[in-house]
Amino acid sequence: MDAVEKANLERQKRWAKERKVGEGTYAVVYQGREVGTGRKVAIKKIKVGAMKDGLDMSAIREVKYLRELEHQNVISLLDVFSSKTNLNLVLEWLETDLEMIIKNHSLVFLPADIKSWIAMTLRGLEFCHRNFILHRDLKPNNLLIAADGQLKIADFGLARDFADPGYKMTCQVITRWYRPPELLFGCRYYSTAVDMWSVGCIFAELMLRTPYLPGESDMDQLKTIFRALGTPTEEEWPGHTKLPDYVPVGQFTKSSMRDLFTAATADCLNLLSKFFIYEPRKRISARDALHHPYFFALPNPTHPSKLPKISTQPSSRTLEEVDGNVDLDSPGPAVKAPAPVPNRLKRKLSSVSSNQDGRETYARRLDFSQ
Amino acid sequence: MSRRLYPLASLEQIQNSPSRQDGIPAELEEDLRAYGCKLIHQAGILLKQKQVAVATAQILFQRFWFVTSMKQFGIGDVGMGALYLASKLEECPLRMRDLINVYDLLLQRAAHSLKPEGKEFKYTPMSYFGNTFYDLKDALVVAEMQLLKRLGFDVHVVLPYGTLVNYMRLLDLTGREDAVSRAWGYLNDALQTPVYASYPVQTIVSAAILLATRHLGIPLPSTPPNCWWDLFDAEWEDVWAVCGYIMRLYRERSLEDRRQVIGMLTKKDVRRWLEENAPS
């Protein structure tokens, strides 16, 4: 055994696997502990032996980018070690994710809560973009929430760097409901704007408590987008009809955002609409979004530790605190949204296991399937 | 000094590399490293792979030998693994079978060059489901994993090309096409030496510029306190040492020396050589 093997064994001994919490095509996730401190961690075991092409691309991307990124709002990779033929990533343990929180209708969101989540998302994303990394799979279930309420961007299996302008990339990225129209039209040269569209979808979903643009197929996704935001004109989005997979999907007129997002302030709607600008070059950047008046207007964002979280105790908030953002009696969103029938909503790539006694057991999602 | 994103070998690793600890002489290790890199380069060209992936593979390959002995892993297998891994890292993944076919060709050609002269080389393709394929495939998967594991999963590589362009601009040499392409060439040749794993990029780029300008007789301010390399945070001793590494690549080698290197592509060959040459 040489020095490298010894070092690896040392590292392996630092972490103990406790129980399996989830499984995907390429990896198994365990809950574990740091032996020395008892700190909870997630251990993602990448199966290598089972694979035909050596190590999976998404595992390599995840290791590469998480090694580089260190930010409060990005999940941290604590260690990597190998056992026999497997690769193990040790990640910080995060209790839940934003999707679970959105779906839990016993929780009430205040406008300040939404502001806080979006601010944390944008801070993490701005850091990624500043380091020339595109996430390419932003959606509520990839935004994990730590015990202290901090939101962390996770799952860098589809991430890549974009230092080379004009380098062709695949358009088959981002879960459909959060995918921007330029990718649906087959655009192969894109940039940070694709992630910003996803942030817009998440922002809207936080307010609506249901996915904003849930298309059933790639074609339907375009229709859904245009129904909500209007079919783009050549003026709004020059050149979009020349994109590789462009197909006319019909003329829709823009429906008023004001009617759908009834409780939103003018600042809030203004920011939201900037995430949904068709022309990718004009779409707001993470940096500019953070400087938007929305974040400087009252109410101030909720402190992360005070954000709604899933717990056994019923919400300690009194009704007076709830300022009409959400209708408490209705199980769904209090909006006149053309909401799809709930049971037809199948979120792709997710496998949430929840038992109905109020406490949600949460399995870390493994999105390796794209 | 700015923070470096990429790891460099420690002084101890450079002075006493794992291969040297196992009894492989320094010069032979240097030649084996260079030959492994040449194979990566040839494979890259045959596969029409992007130069960034090839260069990344060569740098990972060079780093690997600061933590592992050639007695344990063969330069052929590790080179193949490095090119495979680097291609994934640079988002231009290769098909396993393509890479294996190309390496098989290169290995056969190497073996042929050791045979007595006269016969022309003819490549015999492997059978689609033959053992050769599965053996090479296993070796490839192992090499990829070992590279990651032994490099501590730190696969960040900074390539020198952008820096060269900047420096040439600063030195007002972009008009001298011969100087630019020559320096560029030295950077590529330096990939066959361990310098990318032991010196920061600015030092290597300065060395390439130094070699190019001196060979072409282009004068640059070089008397203290006005030395152009100071501008790029490079130390003269280091720049000069890197130049040495690069120039050593071009020295004449005897036929025996060359054959010896070609005959040590696998760890088995290395072990046999070590037994035959064991100090008595």
Automatic annotation (TrEMBL), chain A:
<feature type="region of interest" description="Disordered">
    <location>
        <begin position="305"/>
        <end position="370"/>
    </location>
</feature>
<feature type="binding site">
    <location>
        <position position="45"/>
    </location>
    <ligand>
        <name>ATP</name>
    </ligand>
</feature>
<feature type="binding site">
    <location>
        <begin position="21"/>
        <end position="29"/>
    </location>
    <ligand>
        <name>ATP</name>
    </ligand>
</feature>
<keyword id="KW-0547">Nucleotide-binding</keyword>
<feature type="domain" description="Protein kinase">
    <location>
        <begin position="15"/>
        <end position="295"/>
    </location>
</feature>
<dbReference type="InterPro" id="IPR011009">
    <property type="entry name" value="Kinase-like_dom_sf"/>
</dbReference>
<dbReference type="GO" id="GO:0008353">
    <property type="term" value="F:RNA polymerase II CTD heptapeptide repeat kinase activity"/>
</dbReference>
<feature type="compositionally biased region" description="Basic and acidic residues">
    <location>
        <begin position="357"/>
        <end position="370"/>
    </location>
</feature>
<comment type="similarity">
    <text>Belongs to the protein kinase superfamily. CMGC Ser/Thr protein kinase family. CDC2/CDKX subfamily.</text>
</comment>
<dbReference type="GO" id="GO:0005737">
    <property type="term" value="C:cytoplasm"/>
</dbReference>
<dbReference type="GO" id="GO:0005524">
    <property type="term" value="F:ATP binding"/>
</dbReference>
<dbReference type="GO" id="GO:0070985">
    <property type="term" value="C:transcription factor TFIIK complex"/>
</dbReference>
<keyword id="KW-0723">Serine/threonine-protein kinase</keyword>
<dbReference type="GO" id="GO:0004693">
    <property type="term" value="F:cyclin-dependent protein serine/threonine kinase activity"/>
</dbReference>
<dbReference type="InterPro" id="IPR037770">
    <property type="entry name" value="CDK7"/>
</dbReference>
<dbReference type="InterPro" id="IPR017441">
    <property type="entry name" value="Protein_kinase_ATP_BS"/>
</dbReference>
<keyword id="KW-0418">Kinase</keyword>
<keyword id="KW-0597">Phosphoprotein</keyword>
<feature type="binding site">
    <location>
        <position position="44"/>
    </location>
    <ligand>
        <name>ATP</name>
    </ligand>
</feature>
<dbReference type="GO" id="GO:0032968">
    <property type="term" value="P:positive regulation of transcription elongation by RNA polymerase II"/>
</dbReference>
<protein>
    <submittedName>
        <fullName>Pkinase-domain-containing protein</fullName>
    </submittedName>
</protein>
<keyword id="KW-0067">ATP-binding</keyword>
UniProtKB/TrEMBL annotation, chain B:
<protein>
    <submittedName>
        <fullName>Cyclin-like protein</fullName>
    </submittedName>
</protein>
<dbReference type="GO" id="GO:0006357">
    <property type="term" value="P:regulation of transcription by RNA polymerase II"/>
</dbReference>
<dbReference type="InterPro" id="IPR006671">
    <property type="entry name" value="Cyclin_N"/>
</dbReference>
<dbReference type="Pfam" id="PF00134">
    <property type="entry name" value="Cyclin_N"/>
</dbReference>
<dbReference type="InterPro" id="IPR043198">
    <property type="entry name" value="Cyclin/Ssn8"/>
</dbReference>
<dbReference type="InterPro" id="IPR036915">
    <property type="entry name" value="Cyclin-like_sf"/>
</dbReference>
<dbReference type="GO" id="GO:0016538">
    <property type="term" value="F:cyclin-dependent protein serine/threonine kinase regulator activity"/>
</dbReference>
<feature type="domain" description="Cyclin N-terminal">
    <location>
        <begin position="26"/>
        <end position="155"/>
    </location>
</feature>
